[in-house]
Amino acid sequence: MQLQHVNVKFLVQNPEEVDLEPLIPVFHGWIQEQPGGEELLLDIADYRHVPAGPGVVLIGHQGNYSVDNTDNRLGVRYNRKAALEGSNIECLKQAARAALLALQRLEADPRLKGKLRFNGRDVEVFVNDRLIAPNTEATREAFGADLRKFLQQMFRGGEFSVSYASDPRKLFTAFVKAAQIFSVADLLDALA
Amino acid sequence: MKVSNSQWAEKLSGKMPEHLAREIDIFETEVALRISGKIDERLFAETRLRKGIYGQRYDNGQRHNGKKVQQIPYPSGELTKGPSTMWDAPGMQRIKIPGGGMNAEQLETMADLAEEYSDGIAHVTTRQDFQLHYIHIDDTPSLMRRLAAANITTREACGNSVRNITACPYAGVCQDEAFDVTPYSRAMAKFLLGHPDVQNFGRKFKPAFSGCSQHACGLTSLHDMGMIAVTRNENGVEERGFETYVGGGLGAVPYHAKLFDDFVPLGELLPLTQAISRVFARLGEKKNRSRARIKFLIQDLGIEKFRELVLEERKTLPSDPRWAEFAKEGEAFQELPLHPGGKPPLLGTEKFQRWAKNNTRPQRQQGYVVVTIALPLGDITSNQLRALADIARRFTRETVRTTVEQNMVLRWVSQSDLVEVHKALEAAELAAPGAGTIIDVATCPGTDTCKLGISSSRGLAGELRKRLTEKNFQLDEAVNNLHIKISGCFNSCGQHHVSDLGFYGVSRKMAGYAVPHFQVVLGGQWENNGNSYGLPVIAIPSKNIPEAVSRLTGRYAENRKNGECFRDFTARIGKVELKKMLEDLTRLPADPSDRSFFSDWGDPREYGLSDMGVGECAGEVVSATDFGLAAAERELFEAQVAWESGQIKQAGEASYQSMLRAAKALVEIETPVVGNDSEEIVREFRARYFDTQKFFDPFAGGKFAEYLFAAHQNADRPYTQDSARYLIDEAQLFIDAAHNCYNRIGAPAIV
B11: nearest CA in chain A? Predict the structure, then answer.
């Protein structure tokens, strides 16, 4: 199975303390700077008014970045839209690195007052294409080994658990919980 | 963009209606031909528009990033999908939902598409459509195939064709309707889709059905063709038919639909629609888009002549067996409940009671209610759509509809199930109370995604919703029942004319900078199918609109007389007094370091394209042009007051004079000495601003200047109540355009 359109989301700590409003000027700044290498950043979609919604989305051509509150689980999410070449593990690493780099910038941005921080443990992985990866047992079997290899590398061989979304209508979704706490820098180093 | 795009045709083979599958195959070929340069960009633009694929803001390849205009280097380079519309630029997909009716599978399909091709949000429009934003053109054939497999088409969702046919979402269950219009609206939608007689219009054509005349659910007054269900007795036998109206429309200058026939029998409705379409296609304006809606044709011909032409055309139509089938649709159609009807719950939490108060409505069938799901700004997530599909299956026979208030309704809910339905909606975060109240603000996309947006209608709507929700339960009951509707520009997609409190986006220059504003529109009426249109009272900076709402609603709560509706209250108080109580809100904050007014709600970028320095913002810097435009606004306001007091002649003359005054203000930027001779002002304005296209709106072109030329040409004609009213609206648009022109040319300020 060749994965594409991988999404990775890193959940934040104390989500009730995070104010999404300052993200809007922050994301506008990113559009001005275009810091994402090959990525072209285009626009901002503000869905703060939608409960358990996509939050604030930075729309890009190759991928979207968001501080996403889907299922009331607030996190920094990268949604890869353009096709990638390379193995499944490389696709997973690309999406994870993009989300982590965004998270690192947000953690350091003074406008967010240090409130938006990775909780150290919880990661969600989605495949945003039902034809490539329907949310089925077969996909879990086909994709599970690559997912585990990727997670082992990201968590430097540390323990973690994986569970899956059960509703077959949902995107293929893996909920990952690391046994120990990691910082964003730890994870980026591990994926370098 | 999606790597799976090439596989959907095969995957869904046999699941799509054949004609839709074929159309999408053809469209995919056209996409390929455009990529290889074998189709002209204009032709491709109309082709995609007729599939509901719109452009979105910044699709011309540039965006003001708050500091400067930034070119957007899209990977596909110079390839376009229409004039000045870059191929890779995200676009909008509009999806027609006839009568707003959806089943569970269709909700799930919408959920999947929003997630996979858009940003996880599906947006319900004020015409019962869905819109998905940030869609790549390459993904549209797959998206359309997946919709087709769920029996939904995007065909003619845009372009110069018959748009979504809307219908009252309570049809069939309403206490006050003559009969259920659902089957007829669906049959008409099917009949007209792709019909040869509707392919050659100069502009769009929007039909709507309503089951009664007194409620607003169908909004027939503001449609190109509006049908209201009526019955008559012939020899003791009840016969169904439609009171039929034509030539309504909002847009920049709103028109009330005119009565065409007070009873069109069922068997005559389709041929009549065909005949109307043929006359519109034959005689309607084609070149000048701003005069191409059927309302202008009817205005020019007069309703009597138009009726005569249509009835003549009707005689020439070859008979079609579908006309007679249409009459039988009502007999065949039946919508049934899943569960037996029940009694209203005796108990319930306070939360439940609050929700039930505005979000449920008894059906005419005893024991059942319609549940309204209030969607904030019309937005719903993919997960919520799936949850709603589950709820629709669990409690009903999947009887869900979208509404023109950008909500969704679940019909045929047994009262015995109501507590459980509320719990299920609550679990899906779909149990927001206050449906149809002042917090349930309707809005178009505005500057968020629309290319025509002037001010942030969604930003303002979000802010008003937040503030009003905070004090919702302390609000006076009469205030609570008011409607707020917002458009990002004069085009009225937010239906601001038919609201208690309407707003539309304009810009004004203040202290040398462009400042986002909204015109406050009062006097509109939502009830009676939107039968009364409001008029602008005053333009206020966006950031002061919440305070304006607070003052207007506060005054209404304090001063209204027994049972007085808001429209009657504003008429009694009078425009002069209303303007007086809002006038101080037109000013900038005294503190010159407060820059908040120079950006819009939810968008921190400095509004507009000004490159003037911060230090020049002093608050009292005013140019002669500012004075001239302010005088024009004042004169127009006097015209409104005159019109409302029945002084039609004065209203018409003052409107015309206000346009001349605004034109003169612009002319004097270039040539300081201009007399008061109207010929000279119009001549100079034409030479300096129209012929040079300096006055042209980026999207509307010279439309607003033509209002001045027409008013000047007709200055000696007597004014009627209608013509004076249209002239007031046109003058307002002309003055707004003069402000925009002034902003664009950046005339130097003087102290």
Answer: A131
* Residue B141, burial from CB neighbour count under 10 angstroms (0-12, 13-18, 19+): buried
Q: For residue range B249-303, list pLDDT tens digits in order.
A: 998 889 999 999 999 999 999 999 999 999 999 999 988 877 899 999 999 999 9
Q: Do domains B173-332 and B437-591 have the same CATH topology?
A: yes
Q: Exposed, middle or buried: residue A115 (CB in 10 Å: 0-12, 13-18, 19+)?
A: middle
DSSP summary character for residue B629:
H
User: What average pLDDT does the segment A102-115 reach?
Assistant: 97
CB atoms within 10 A of CB B243: 19
Chain B nearest-CA residue for A33: B65
CB B398 within 8 A of CB B337: no
Question: Which 3-state string (H, E, C) describes B44-57?
Answer: HHHHHHCCCEECCC
CA A159 to chain B, closest CA, distance in angstroms equals 31
Give the Cα separation of B442 and B375 in Å (integer). Answer: 10
CATH, domain B173-332, list 3.30.413.10, 3.40.570.10, 3.40.50.300, 3.90.550.10? 3.30.413.10
Chain B residues within an 8 Å CB radius of A48: 462
Residue A43 identity: D
Hey, what's the torsion of the CAs at B619, B623, B629, B634, to 10 degrees? 60
Query: What would the mean pLDDT of A92-117 be, rounded to a whole number?
Result: 97
- Res B673: pLDDT: 59
Secondary structure, 3-state, B305-318: HHHHHHHHHHHHCC
pLDDT of B633: 85
The two tokens of residue B169 are 């979402």
Better-predicted residue by pLDDT, B507 or B396: B396
Helix (H) or strand (E) segment spanning residue B522: strand B513-522
ipTM: 0.98
When scoring B11, B58, B65, B468 by the number of chain A Cβ atoms within 10 A, the one with the most, hence best to mutate, is B65
Is the model's pTM score more than 0.80? yes
Domain B622-751 coded CATH 3.20.20.370: no
Percentage of chain B with pLDDT > 70? 97
pLDDT value of position B368: 98
What is the distance between the alpha carbons of residues B734 and B506, in angstroms, rounded to a whole number? 12
Domain boundaries, chain B: 3-149, 173-332, 350-427, 437-591, 622-751
Q: How far is residue B367 from each of residues B171, B247, B290, B310, B412, measured CA to CA in Å?
A: 17, 40, 49, 45, 9
Whole-number Cα distances in Å, B736 to B454, B575, B686, B739? 11, 19, 17, 5
Q: A49 and B116 in contact by Cβ < 8 A? A: no
- So what's the pLDDT on residue B613? 26
Contact B366/B107 with Cβ under 8 angstroms? no
pLDDT for residue B145 is more than 80: yes
Q: Search chain A and give the residue with CA nearest B64.
A: A32
Q: What is the pLDDT of residues A33-69, one digit of tens each?
A: 998 778 999 999 999 999 999 999 999 999 999 999 9
Tokens 């003037």, located at residue: B612
What is the fold, at CATH topology level, of the domain defined by B350-427? Alpha-Beta Plaits (3.30.70)
Question: Cβ contacts (< 8 Å) between B119 and chain A: which residues?
Answer: 45, 47, 54, 57, 59, 64, 66
CATH of the structural domain B437-591, one choice from 1.20.1250.20, 3.30.413.10, 2.60.120.10, 3.40.50.970: 3.30.413.10
CB spacing of B429 vs A52 below 8 angstroms = yes
